[in-house]
Amino acid sequence: MRALAPHQISLLKQQGLGSYPLVTAEQIHGHAVALVTESSASPFEGVDGLLTTTRGITLGISVADCAPVWLVAKNGSAGGLLHSGKKGTELGIVPEGIRTLCSTAHLLPQDLILIIGPCIRPPCYEVDFAGDIRRQAIEAGISSIHDDGICTACHPESYYSYRRELGLTGRMLATLTLLPQ
Ligand SMILES: [Zn+2]
Predict the structure, then answer these.
(1) Which residues place a Cβ less than 5 A from the ion ligand 1?
(2) Does this model's pTM top 0.85?
């Protein structure tokens, strides 16, 4: 399950990201986040969120119904990628990621943009964790929040869905790279 599909590697290459090291997270549905540097091993053990201020490293989080959440500094100096499903959202990985990224990169919450990616949502799922993520972000002081409201279970042509496919499914790879200047 950790193996990257060849098409994901070729997509990274198509986007001009093929030469950057990819660091993924072990993803244990927890709330721990880690700072990724040039010397970080992949997958980063014990965490569900990856943060970086280093250019030229691609962060990767696998999802299939849980939300990928991007945190990006408006000035381009830092970014993070979080795996926030029902459990991770309850445990507060989003506020944890915001706090840690701000303290690491000397930023304020209002310096960040938060993006919620495709994930399973009501009525396909009984818990509106995307709504909870939005509330957590607002409480943390973020005002720039983007969410296209896409439900993975409603779009079998575009997204894998763990629940729709009863567990026999692939994973999507969300990525974030701070490009070298
Ligand atoms: Zn749906």
Answers:
(1) 124, 151, 153-154
(2) yes
